[in-house]
Design brief:
TIM Barrel; ten-stranded mixed β-sheet; 15% strand
């Protein structure tokens, strides 16, 4: 059954999804960034945006997709938001004419998100994710400009504006590791119902991990796998006390990541195609490219290896009781540990699943609603 449901998930074409790197450049130099501190300045030009648009529209029509999902990413995507807005307008028009759902997400550090940009984003069904890693002194040590100046105040001002906007869903992401886990509770006090009252936003906790060579020296500061479940449970509970709603719910997951789907792509500024944001720009993980006509061509051996990952052919995975909630694990971890996408890539599952179930049941019992 798992094999069948996994294949259904992998080859479902209902959603056409792409993560678009508008630029690899960034105006911050975060201490744990997987792209490293020496960012390239490669940025998507308008002619490449046209090729990407042509690819997306043709691919969505060919696969008879019912929705198009776009995640604007970087670097810092707002550094090239003129091109980003151009892409969104063109694809929005296509979706309206062809009765497709259009969902947009932007992952930004928030430093360039002013009132004018927020007003422009209101024209789209948009979710904005902004990272806030702690109270002022903590955040500023982790997420600073290239000159060393902290970014806390400007990010907080952007969140205040977004919190007032009912047309944009806002996620406050807190990336946690051993250096800021304790102060995260202070942050929840500060932004919660008794502080800044940013409770129209959702809080999401990300676990910092060593994803590649650029951040390999950060491993000693990362939370160990067997601690993650307890850490998240305590943070979920405390965030609720501060007025933030989570909706924690156990899920079956036959694919660890949406990028194992056939209809999902990561697009670099030069229109190279990848399958993981952590691998973008790394030649050994290149999957293919979009040509001048907007066709997806030149699929590499890495593409075929990625798309044929089957945890049921892995002795460790197929015997693991967590497989229906894990899908075989993360390809980045697998590759970093074994040199292959085909090995198990366990992360944030064992111990976390149990705490998710406990939190879900507790919430249902508290609200006296049916499960």
């Amino acid at each position: 059954m798992i094999a069948y449901l996994r294949d259904c998930s992998k080859h479902s074409n209902e959603c056409h999804t792409s993560i678009v790197f508008l630029t690899l450049d960034c105006n911050l130099r975060c201490s744990y960034c997987f792209q490293g501190n020496e960012k390239t300045t490669e940025t998507m030009a308008k002619n490449n945006a046209d090729r990407y648009i042509a690819f997306t529209l043709a691919s969505a029509m060919r696969s008879r997709a019912k929705s198009i999902n776009i995640y604007l990413f970087g670097g810092e995507p707002l550094l090239n938001m003129d091109v980003g807005l151009y892409i969104l307008e063109e694809i929005k028009s296509f979706c309206e004419v062809n009765s497709l759902l259009f969902n947009i997400s932007i992952v930004t550090n928030g430093t360039l998100l002013d009132k004018d940009m927020i007003e422009k984003l209101q024209n789209f069904n948009c979710t904005v994710q902004i990272t806030l890693d702690g109270v002022r002194e903590v955040h500023n040590k982790r997420r600073m400009y290239s000159n060393g100046e902290g970014s806390f105040e400007v990010v907080l001002n952007a969140l205040r504006e977004l919190n007032k906007n009912v047309n944009i869903k806002t996620i406050i992401r807190v990336n946690i590791d051993r250096t800021n886990i304790n102060s995260t509770y202070d942050l929840l006090d500060f932004i919660g119902k008794n502080g800044e009252m940013l409770t129209n936003c959702t809080v999401n906790f990300g676990i910092v991990r060593t994803q590649g060579a650029a951040c390999s020296g950060y491993s000693s500061k990362c939370i160990s796998d067997n601690e993650i479940g307890n850490v998240l449970y305590e943070l979920w509970t405390y965030a609720e006390k501060q007025g933030f709603q989570h909706g924690i719910k156990p899920q079956r997951k036959f694919l660890y990541c949406g990028m194992y789907c056939e209809n999902a792509f990561i697009i670099a500024p030069n229109l190279d195609v990848y399958k993981c944001v952590d691998h973008t720009g790394v030649s050994e993980h290149l999957m293919g490219r979009i040509d001048e006509m907007g066709n997806y061509v030149d699929q590499t051996s890495a593409f075929y290896e990625w798309m044929t990952v089957d945890p049921l052919k892995n002795d460790t995975c197929k015997k693991c009781v967590y497989l229906p909630t894990c899908g075989g694990g993360c390809g980045v971890i697998s590759y970093n540990e074994s040199g292959s996408y085909q090995a198990e890539g366990c992360f944030c599952t064992k111990g976390t699943v149990e705490k998710t179930i406990i939190k879900f049941v507790e919430d249902k019992m508290k609200n006296r609603t049916s499960i």
